[in-house]
Amino acid sequence: MASDLRMRLRLLVPAALVLSGIALAAAAALAQPTPRPASPIFGVTIPDGYRSWHLIAPALEAEPLNELRAVVGNDIAVKAYARGTLPFPDGTVLVKLAWKHVPSPEFEPATVPGRATTVQVMVKDAMRYPETGGWGFGRFVNGEPVDEAQHQTCFACHEARVKERDFVFTRYAR
């Protein structure tokens, strides 16, 4: 009887250890955050909490884009803008939100945001992005990054037009 009990324990203990290991692995997998979609080339993601960041400036894009835009920045960006710091320090993050603009149904002379078009992100990290002036770029539609071909155009456009302003188009709206 005692030997039968010992035999059962020898079989049950390893089985229990295997099952507990499987349970721990499953719990760890569930606890892992789901990776956020990242832009090709740069690996930039949409930052958490960006909707509560400070407004840097609004913009109105004419045809063919026909968009209202708002650029917001993290605390590092806001301080750099306020101090007129160029180049922007590493850690600066700028996010541009864009919507089609439509006439206001309540007030005819006004234009209001319509359908959202893109969220665009610039991240300053000179070590990570030395080939693109220290900036990484991300362009997202419906939360998903656009293709690599579109991301290949980001830096060239910034370099051609605003190199002297550390490759940043947006001016601070005071």
Task: Tell me the fraction of residues in β-strands, as a range.
Answer: 25-35%
Regions with little confidence, pLDDT below 50 for 5+ residues: 15-19
Round the Cα radius of gyration to an integer and report it: 25 Å
Query: Residue-averaged pLDDT, rounded?
Result: 88
Major beta sheet summary: 6 strands, antiparallel
Measured as a percent range, the helix fraction is 25-40%
The geometry reads as globular
Structural class: alpha+beta
Give me the number of helical elements: 4
Strand tally = 6
| Gap from first CA to last CA | 86 Å
SSE succession? HEEHEEEEHH
Lateral arrangement of strands in the main beta sheet: 1-2-3-4-5-6
How would you explain this protein's 3D organization?
- The chain is of the alpha+beta class.
- Helices cover 30% and strands 28% of the residues.
- It has 4 helices and 6 strands.
- It has helices at residues 2-31, 75-83, 148-152, 154-162, and strands at residues 54-61, 67-73, 93-103, 111-124, 135-141, 144-145.
- Strands 1-2-3-4-5-6 form a 6-stranded antiparallel β-sheet.
- A hairpin with a 7-residue loop joins strand 3 (93-103) and strand 4 (111-124).
- The radius of gyration is 25 Å and the shape is globular.
- Mean pLDDT is 88; it is low at 15-19.
